[in-house]
Amino acid sequence: MKDLMQMNHPTLLEVFFSGSLVGNLALSQRGEIWFDYSPLWVKSGFGLSPMSQFNLKLGPFKSNNQNLFNGLHGVFNDALPDGWGMLLMDRTLKKQFGWDPHEITPIDRLAYMSNRAMGGLEFRPAMPSSLDSSIPSLEELARDVMLVEEGTQEEVINSLAIYGGSPGGARPKVTIAMHKRDNHCISGFGDIPAEFDHWIIKFRTINLDPDCMGRIELAYSKMAQNAKIEMPPTKLIQVKLRNKMEDYFAVQRFDRVGNIKRHVISLAGMLEISHRSPSIDYLNLLKAVYFATKDHGEVKRAFRLMVFNVLAHNKDDHAKNFSFIHKNNSWKLAPAYDLTFSSGMNNQHTTAVSGEGLPTLRSIQEIAKELTISDWKEIVLEVYEAVSSWEKLASELMIPQKYISQYKKAMQSAPCFSEIAKQHPLSEI
Description:
Layout: E1 12-17, E2 20-27, E3 33-37, H1 39-44, H2 74-77, H3 83-97, H4 106-113, E4 121-124, H5 138-149, H6 158-163, E5 173-179, E6 185-186, E7 196-202, H7 213-226, E8 234-241, E9 244-252, E10 256-257, E11 260-261, E12 263-266, H8 267-271, H9 282-293, H10 296-311, E13 323-327, E14 330-333, H11 361-370, H12 376-387, H13 390-396, H14 401-413, H15 415-423
Antiparallel strand pairs: 1-2, 1-4, 2-3, 5-6, 5-7, 7-9, 8-9, 10-11, 12-13, 13-14
Helix pairs in contact: 7-12, 9-10, 10-12, 13-14
């Protein structure tokens, strides 16, 4: 077998979906990344993005924003992890091939992801790997996450590099298949038995997140459901770690249905904009939803989610936290995800509301008027009443009182929430 340390950087990848060749990605000698659809996909497939750039046609094309994603097209950048997964990837590629992070190209990273990326796209040929794909217990995964978080000098555990290397976001996560009746888990990267579903388990960042982070996010998922926001199934996973029970938040994957993969594109990937800094307004988001779906009902779903984020103090509402699913030959807004208490940057929403980082009720009204959402008052009130159940839900989940009080105060002091509280039931708006 060829010595892995002598591995050359690949320059050409085939992109597959559901076993069919979609097209090819190529890295030029000038460092430019080009994509072109296969002729068969042009005849019988679908555009990988709602944007006209990805209309089904022959001929190579680059991304519209060469200064972003290292020149990679947004839809393919969505297949790559963020902070946590990228850390594991960089450590693994350093160990296997001696590559420093600055040497690693986007094509390298996609080849590394192969069939393990979020969404439905797969990349071939897969990068040779010496990683052990046997899945450990949840307790072992949690332990290994903590070791990495603590800066241990131990080598990254092989299984952790595999199972924790695909989800986006900064917090540590792993992707697994879990039994429908208990927490027995197996690998989710091949076909899984009918009695299993695909899940993401989110661990806490030790030095940043409270011990009850999992319970907080579960409370938020329940608030969102009460606000009539579509959410995937969620639950708590209890794991014994260092003689202490830890509660971790788990969410079922919406890009998997049994052994079927769904194609997903984030708002950031679709518009090819950064999610690492404020780059968009909810007005742009709602217009993008209509552009992609051609469905005013989907626009109202996005509007409801905007109201929830504002009232529930979820200010980490960046462009990668909104996605679209391609199914039945059309685009739909994906179920909501990554909903939790967050103060964002400078205590402002990452996605502005009609230009406001600290939105008022007027900001919401302006967007409703622009998108002709006539029942916006009813939506606002429904969400307000759902978010007002925070204290009750948090108490039922035994979240410590200091967090209950702290978050309640932050929600109630926000301009929009306080305005609604004064005018409830919105009869004079």
